[in-house]
């Protein structure tokens, strides 16, 4: 990883005299980052987190902004997202997310892929946009759209909190990559929420599976 980052730094220094809008340079970065992130599928969680932190640190040096760097890395990992998804997945304030998207769009890194359909009984206003890398697949755009709708659901938001607690307090601290469904149910019941515990537990289990965590039944 260090060797790759050093090479990336040399490439950045070499191209520093060119315009920041040189899209070909960013296409190279995107291709490199996506390949590096895909390699992490075979790594354990600790190695993955270390590699992502190194990429994030390097990205901050490129963009001079942690919010833009995080958004850039998110797009390299997932291909597409809405502002609402970025707010929730990155735990970033709305204003920072929109500034990051404006910067990434001005650099030609992301483009509008599709408008989100207006929800029934919505109060109006502009329709959200799914933003995507030009190289993103239709599946990645569809996944971002699906995640956007899920994150509007109160049940999903609670399940996400449960799953994140398990990731922070159990998975990361113990350096493991699996959890039992029973442990998820216990975590859900401790919240004493007004929703069905099995529904929340299943959503949390699905969320953890999407993050690469094995859930044993």
What does this protein look like?
α1 packs parallel to α3. The strands form two sheets. The chain has a three-stranded antiparallel sheet, sandwiched between helices. A two-stranded parallel sheet has the order 4-5. It is mainly alpha-helical and 217 residues long.
Q: How would you briefly describe this protein structure?
A:
The protein is built from ten helices and five strands. The longest helix has 21 residues, at 154-174.
What is the terminal separation in angstroms?
Answer: 36 Å
Order of helices and strands: HHHHEHHEEHHEHHE
Count of helical segments? 10
Describe the strand arrangement of the main beta sheet, using strand numbers.
1-3-2
Number of strands: 5
Q: From the alpha-carbon coordinates, what is the Rg to the nearest angstrom?
A: 19 Å
Strand percent estimate: 5-15%
Shape verdict:
globular
- SS content category: mainly alpha
* Sheet of most strands: 3 strands, antiparallel
Low-confidence parts lasting 5 or more residues at pLDDT below 50? 1-21
Quote the average pLDDT.
79
Helix content class: 55-70%
